[in-house]
Structure formats: structure tokens, C-alpha cells
């Protein structure tokens, strides 16, 4: 089957954002005299949204709702100040996204990253109009792995789940894809390992962005 639509995750899929995320959260932790988290540990903490990241970053005894919300708000503020200090698209991503656009393949970005920072990252690293839709986390909107946002995107793009690939680096993305009845495509270059993707039901795992194109009936 050749697919006609592609929904990308952002962190760990399109862009290596690990160091910027870690720096923002560690600055927020330091503001309240909590210990920093080593960068590598963030690999398994990212993906569920900023409040869950704040919850996981705090010592267990400090994980009350008020502290979590305050820490998350500070982390977003620090992130907005320096969203692109270290973040870069993964090798091959820019060329693949450009080819998808040239071939008029419908594309979207769906991430649990705060919407404000999502826009900054995409606008700062990709040419204008690279994606048809960009969706980050907003208050009152279900986050992945809830399939509601995926279905909303597909309605706007006039595409069906069965003709859509949902591409991501985490178990959250694979669960979202399966819940939305899209094809679950994992990537091995991101924040999670292959075993996590397989356990979450990835229909296929690719090792380079270029491997995506044959699935869309595209050659470069």
C-alpha cells in the first residue's frame, strides 16, 4: 500500500531537541533548589507533555500539583527564551520533508510539546510551509496517545487513517497511531530504543529518513 498522508512527531523524530529540553527543565529545577537531571535520563522522560516531564523531574516528595504546575510553567518560559540553542533536524530530514512537499503529500506535525515552543522550533528550523498543519499541546486539547487530535488533523487534510502514516520515535507515538487506526512507523534514531517501539506495536521501524519515501511511492 502506498500512503497519501504523513503525521510526524517532533522531538526525537524530526528534530534532536534533547539538550534544549534538558537545559530548560534543569534551569527550572535550579530556580527551586532541586537537583538537576542528567541529560541522558531525559531520553525516557520526554514525550508525555511538559507537566508530566516536570512531575518526573521533581523528587518524589515534591510532586504535588502546585509545584508541578509551577515548575512546568518556568520550564516553558526558559525554553521559549532559548528554543534553538542546540536543536537541529536529524540528518536527511530536511531533504525528505522538502521532497514530500514537492510531491504534494499532505503532512502534519503532532507533538505533546507546548504549542508556543513547537511553532518556534518548526519556524526556526524548516522553510516556511514545510508542513500543512502543526499542532502542539494546548489547554483543553487531548494529548497523544489520545487519537482525537490525529482524527482532527486528518479531517482538516481530507485524508483517512488507513492511508496515513504516523511516524515517531516513542511508544507514545506508536500507541497513538494504533488508536487512530493509522500505520505505526517507528524511527530508530530518536529518544527511545527499538525494543520500546516494537513492544508498543510499531508496524515497521526505519533507520534513516530516506527509507520513508518508498512507502509514499517516492524516489529521490
Write a structural description.
With 220 residues, this protein is α/β, with parallel strands linked by helices. The protein has 2 domains: 5-16 and 88-216, Rossmann fold (3-Layer(aba) Sandwich); 18-81, DNA polymerase, domain 1 (Orthogonal Bundle). It is built from 8 helices and 8 strands. It has helices at residues 18-31, 50-57, 65-81, 93-102, 115-125, 148-157, 171-180, 194-199, and strands spanning 5-8, 15-16, 88-89, 106-114, 133-137, 164-168, 183-187, 204-206. The chain has a 6-stranded parallel beta sheet with strand order 5-4-1-6-7-8. A two-stranded antiparallel sheet has the order 2-3. Helix 8 (194-199) links the parallel strand 7 (183-187) and strand 8 (204-206). It is globular. The chain starts with a strand and ends in a 14-residue tail after the last strand.
Output the helix-strand order: EEHHHEHEHEHEHEHE
**What helical percentage do the residues reach?**
25-40%
- In the CATH hierarchy, what is the class of the largest domain? Alpha Beta
What form results from the Cα inertia axes? globular
Task: Supply database-style keywords.
220 residues; alpha/beta; Rossmann fold; DNA polymerase, domain 1; 2 domains; 8 helices
What is the topology?
Elements: E1 5-8, E2 15-16, H1 18-31, H2 50-57, H3 65-81, E3 88-89, H4 93-102, E4 106-114, H5 115-125, E5 133-137, H6 148-157, E6 164-168, H7 171-180, E7 183-187, H8 194-199, E8 204-206
Parallel strand pairs: 1-4, 1-6, 4-5, 6-7, 7-8
Antiparallel strand pairs: 2-3
Helix pairs in contact: 1-3, 2-3
